[in-house]
Amino acid sequence: MNKINKSMKKANQMKRHLKVSTGRKFYTCILLTGALQFWAKVSLAQADGNAGISEATGLIKGYFSTGVNLMYAIGAVVGLIGAIKVYNKWSAGEPDTTKVASSWFGACIFLVVVATVLKSFFSV
After folding, report:
1. What digits encode the pLDDT tens for the residues 61-83?
2. Sign (positive/negative) of CA torsion 13, 19, 22, 26?
3. What does the domain layout of the chain look like in residue ranges?
């Protein structure tokens, strides 16, 4: 009876070892497949590096001119708001009207000058 128990234990140990071994092989296979796919994607991505950079440059140039136009529009809105505030202060007879007018006018000029300088600096 003792020999049968020993052989049963041995058989169970071999089954467990086989299951663990099969699981490790499966996970190793999955890991190697993933690594191979990653390597293939990386090597393909490197081939289009110059084309991607050229496309990004073109897109940024398109966005840049839109951004400059947006800065001009913001400058116009700031100018209108400033004009209304200065008019309200002037109508109320407040003494610091010139200071407020110069600060709002300066903000509008700053936005327009920055947009123009950036446009000419980047030669867009």
Report:
1. 878 888 888 888 888 888 888 88
2. negative
3. 1-47, 50-124
